Amino acid sequence: MEIDNKRLIIGLGSVFILGILFAVVNGSYTSSTNEQLPLIVYGISFISILVGAFIIFMFQVKINKLQLNKVLKILPREERIVVKILLDNNNSIEQNKLVVLSGFSKVQISRILKKLMEREVIEKRNMGNTNLIMLKI
Hints:
The protein has 137 residues and is mostly helical. It has two domains: 5-74; 77-135, Arc Repressor Mutant, subunit A. The protein has five helices and three strands, in the order H-H-H-E-H-H-E-E. The protein has a three-stranded antiparallel β-sheet with strand order 1-3-2. A hairpin with a 2-residue loop joins strand 2 and strand 3 (130-135). The protein starts with a helix and ends with a strand.
């Protein structure tokens, strides 16, 4: 899964602001009580950040799967079959294996791949006697 730069900047900015807030709270707590914040407060905060990041990651994975299913519904049946095969094979497969797994002829696969390349859904790389087909989305 690829992380969007905008979301990464927002996440890092949020952690930075949280650090500044901790410094301010620690400063005001120290000035009023002449003691530092207990170490447990920092531990609980760190665990909370980790749990929050995990929850966001899980929702992002689910959102990506929902978006992918919506995209697959838009594709014609033949193209949908090819994309599903690519997804099941870690987003890349050799073209001759794709012919076997899909049940389509070499000509049909070539035409389907050409349409998917025009839409920039896949990328094709030459591998000698065959091509490596890689999913871009």
